[in-house]
């Protein structure tokens, strides 16, 4: 799905002479955690998540290869686990592996818009993680979530 879509989008952009592409995959595509992450995260939790998502991550990796191989001015944005937040909080968007497990959808949207309009990072993959007010528990397991009902 991701790789087929990327192939079609890149072709359409070439045909219409549009050069700027900002797309989203996942921090899971790279298959490794930041060295600063906890041992539990790196050795237990991340491998489980990577195994569960291996088919999607493999297709996202193919998409990234298609985008990288194009002549477009691309930026690949890799968020961590997504959760809902009504407003933009503080977040980091950098072309390196960041420590962080969650990205709010509002922060991701803000990062995408900034990349598309300001051309901050042309040709790298960037990680985006929320650093402001957020939870360390997966969505649905925190206060008021399914685990507390």
From TrEMBL:
Give the NAD(P)-binding domain ranges.
Answer: 4-117
Instruction: Please name the InterPro entries in this protein's record.
Output: NAD(P)-bd_dom, NAD(P)-bd_dom_sf
Q: Which PANTHER family match?
A: FLAVIN REDUCTASE-RELATED, UPF0659 PROTEIN YMR090W
**Transmembrane annotation, as ranges:** none
The major lineage groups are: Bacteria, Bacillati, Actinomycetota, Actinomycetes, Pseudonocardiales
What is the name of the protein in this document? NAD(P)H-binding
Pfam families this protein is in? NAD_binding_10
């Amino acid at each position: 799905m991701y790789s087929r879509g990327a192939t079609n989008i890149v072709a359409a952009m070439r045909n219409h002479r549009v050069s700027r592409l900002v797309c989203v995959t996942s921090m899971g595509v790279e298959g490794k955690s930041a060295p600063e992450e906890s041992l539990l995260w790196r050795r237990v939790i991340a491998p489980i998540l990577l195994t569960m998502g291996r088919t999607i991550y493999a297709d996202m990796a193919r998409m990234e290869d298609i985008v990288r191989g194009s002549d477009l001015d691309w930026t690949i944005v890799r968020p961590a686990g997504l959760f809902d937040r009504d407003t933009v909080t503080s977040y980091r968007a950098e072309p390196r592996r960041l420590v962080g497990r969650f990205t709010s959808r509002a922060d991701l949207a803000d990062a995408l818009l900034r990349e598309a309009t300001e051309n901050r990072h042309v040709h790298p993959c960037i990680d985006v993680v929320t650093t402001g007010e957020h939870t360390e528990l997966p969505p649905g397991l925190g206060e008021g979530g399914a685990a507390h009902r």
